[in-house]
Design a protein that fits this description.
Length: 355
């Protein structure tokens, strides 16, 4: 499908500690367990839809979960690796524009891996913490359509079609600036899709967008370490460029997310998470054969994390599962993703060392 990879929203990698949430002198007890949360760094791509070209949004719906606004408390380099599986379908009476083709009906499965590196060069920029990062999606989209009605060059077909491939998508650059005061963390960030990945012209199965995309967002997290509650929210806008090959100019999009998570022990937390998406301007260009095609969808799911030590490094395993609903001009699907996040190197305060 023209694009199944959503862009990684800004990376919200974070190390959270027990007590008052500050870096303790020693990483002992609960404070040694790290919650390195990726709030938007992975450019997972997978929400096939009629809205936007190929039915996929750059921003990864569901990435702004627990700790969405929390920044790492120390300088360093952090890694997030996410495995993402998405499955969705739409009836034969629904039409989509995919890779320049107008098709009817859709069944899609995406298995992808998103590797993200985050660098925190300073914790004192405009009174906050600065992070910059990069992500690279690699995956295998599998697409089946009931009929290809019009090919990219105007040819008429009335046959079903199948396409699959293993591809490297567009790389993604991220930047975020965050602040913390008391129990509240705030973060503003931007994510840029760089259209140099492998784009399969005229094909149905793709991960690359083949267009510039900029996503901007603002997140807030309220965390009470003693009570063990994390309440987070995130708002953002996605500004899409033009795919020169298909002459498709995707409209701009709005996304909102919220989550509530409870920490049950120093090593386990779980909660609920939801998202809402709406395309706020229509698609244009000669390739937008179905008109503006504004889409809308919501999703609800659960998330859980376990925090442990891998050698001397604190690490977090997190699983998320979502079910989409209330779709307009989009097929509905379900997704599961599993992430491992850990620091590769940290500049710790004097006297502080992981145990």
């Amino acid at each position: 499908m023209a694009i199944f990879c959503q862009g990684p929203a800004e990376s919200g990698l974070a190390i959270r500690h027990a007590g008052d949430g500050t870096m303790s002198k020693h990483f002992n007890g609960a404070s040694r367990w790290a919650l390195v949360a990726m709030g938007a760094a992975c450019a997972l791509g997978a929400t096939p839809a009629r809205a936007s070209e190929g039915g996929a949004s750059f921003y990864l719906l569901g990435s702004g979960g627990p700790g969405a606004a929390v920044m790492p408390p120390v300088e360093g380099v952090f890694l997030d690796n996410t495995i993402y599986i998405y499955d969705a379908s739409a009836g034969a009476d629904r039409q989509f524009v995919i890779g320049g083709n107008v098709v009817a009906g859709l069944d899609v499965t995406v298995a992808a891996e998103f590797l993200t590196l985050l660098w925190v060069p300073s914790t004192d920029v405009l009174g906050g913490t600065l992070s910059v990062g990069a992500a690279l999606p690699v995956g295998a989209p599998i697409v089946d359509v009931n009929a290809v009605i019009t090919g990219p060059r105007g040819n008429q077909f009335q046959i079903s079609a199948h396409d699959s491939a293993l591809v490297v998508a567009d790389p993604i650059a991220t930047m975020a600036l965050g602040w913390k005061t008391g129990k509240v963390s705030l973060q503003t960030g931007a994510t840029l899709n760089i259209p140099i990945g492998r784009y399969r012209e005229d094909q149905l199965a793709n991960l690359a967008f083949h267009r510039w995309v900029l996503d901007t967002s603002f997140a807030a997290s309220w965390i009470d370490p003693k009570a063990g509650w994390d309440v987070s929210g995130k708002l953002g806008f996605t500004f899409n460029g033009r795919n020169d090959f298909t002459d498709y100019d995707t409209g701009n999009e709005f996304h909102a997310e919220a989550s509530v998570e409870k920490t049950f022990s120093p090593v386990f937390s779980a909660g609920l998470q939801g998202f809402y998406y709406k395309q706020i301007s229509g698609d244009t260009g000669s390739g937008a054969r179905l008109g503006p095609n504004k889409g809308e969808i919501a999703g609800l799911g659960a998330t859980a994390a376990t925090h442990l030590m891998l050698g001397r490094s604190p690490a977090t395993f997190r699983i998320r599962a979502f079910k989409e609903f209330a779709a307009e001009n989009r097929p509905e699907g379900a997704s599961v993703w599993v992430s491992l996040t850990l620091p590769l190197s940290m500049k710790l305060p004097k006297g502080a060392a992981p145990q």
